[in-house]
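TEACHING EXERCISE
Course module: macromolecular assemblies
Task: Read the component lines below, then compare them to the predicted structure of the full complex.
Student: A.B.
Group: 4
Components provided:
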Amino acid sequence: MKILAIDTSNIPLSVAVLEDKTLLATMTTNIKKNHSITLMPAIADVMKLAGVKPAELDRIIVAQGPGSFTGLRIGVATAKTLAFALDCELVGVSSLELLAAGISDDKTDIVPLFDARRNHVFSGLYRNSNELINELPDQHRDLVAWLTELKERNQSQIFVGTDVDLFKPQIIDILGEQAYFPAPFLNVPQAFILGLIGKDKEPVEQETFIPNYLRLTQAESQWLETHSDKDHNTYVEKI
Amino acid sequence: MSAEKKNLILAFESSCDETSVAVVEDGHIILSNIVATQVNSHKRFGGVVPEVASRHHIEQITSCVQDAMTEANVSYDDLDAVAVTYGPGLVGALLVGVSAAKAIAFAHELPLIPVNHMAGHIFAARYESEISYPSMALLVSGGHTELVYMPEEGQFEIIGETRDDAAGEAYDKVGRVLGMTYPSGKEIDELAHTGKDTFNFPRAMIKDDNYDFSFSGLKSAFINTVHHADQLGETLDRADLATSFQQSVVDVLAEKTLRACHEYDIKQLILAGGVAANKGLRARLEADMEKMDTVEFIKAPIKLCGDNAAMIGAAGYVEFLKGQRAGLDLNADPSLEFDWIA
Ligand SMILES: [Zn+2]
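Instructor-supplied answer key:
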């Protein structure tokens, strides 16, 4: 099976082409450059290096979120349209699961996290014993409340992600010696790993596939405070 | 006997609150033009919310491609190029169309053509008539009000534009004061046909020696008039308010446009943009232009005045013939503009 894997959920961007479990070519950047400029050329380059033509792809795997809304949409719009145009399978994988999958330690809780601004994070809790298990679902949380909840598990916990450095003082402050930090190279998501996880997942229905934002827009949540979301006209209609 | 090869362009438009994909033949025949409008969603907020718009675009994008290809009865092999709006507009919204267009161009090795959304609006007129140059366009929409001079095909020069609100924006704000739901342009237009111009609102900059517009003074005058009456417990005639407002907008637009038509040596005047669907404006310019027998007046078809991908396909065809191509690194440019005339 020939696989293209794409992650643009946050500042790092990673693209890989796999043949089953084998990596053929990959590219990862961790620079503040707009993903819409970088992604498509990266896909073209990596596929060329791998010697795989678009029509040969069997499956496209994309990190579906959470993460930066714009970043996610560039990745998902690209993956979804490619899969549609090439008539191949499409698979979405949690962007947090992708980070967790890089950690092989089976004795600790794995806590991947992304900055969601205003001291909030996107995070979840995973364990890796033979296979990766999601113990607490991906969620959008106030950092202090999340760390306090984690504290009560009384487990050693490894925090992974490029944004972890930003929160290190607060993590250590609340969790003390319960918290661990991985080797730096594990903080950057790798599309090769994304390919390995996504290889065995069920393909999704392409047309309805959207990012997992894990957060309503501000306008919608304010509107819902005073309105019901039932019995309304279709929000989008073809005319 | 072999039929001449037809040029087929798959076009994308997602700059604001419409997701649209079209298949256009030879730049002037619509094989399909799928438009998914989000207006019911943004009505909740009284205007377009950018993040909500971007989210709807990604829900709709491949379904619109599917419908456009099916309705046009074409396969990827039949296509000659992919055209896409890359600006101006809402950046997050533009990026969905740009990403999708690039994906299809890459997947099927098709040339990618970047299209300016405003050029698209002007080229909606191509479905009415061939465009001959030099030409002038009055472009009026929710985001833009400008006079564009086109010395030759593919060249656009702004000779004047609004200094504050776009005309469409003024319609929406005035509509809110009248208690209408967003977007209110059509409702005001209809109401305006039933009243009289009794309020005589200001015609800003109408005598100024330039082609610029201003609508914020008119908007304020309107709001003040209504609020003043409210304070006195009076109720003003809504139809007369609408007529007076529309008359002021139309007077300024028509007078400046006409002057431009006299001062520039042009063959055509093109009326385009969302507000070009306004019946009052169409009728007024039609009457005025009848007296100018040297300039042909072309109105974008009402159905193609709002945002749609068919207009992008028409503008894209011109760029295609000129050899204009974008790389896979094409980015959205939310503040893309035509050049100002030197
Ligand atoms: Zn427009």
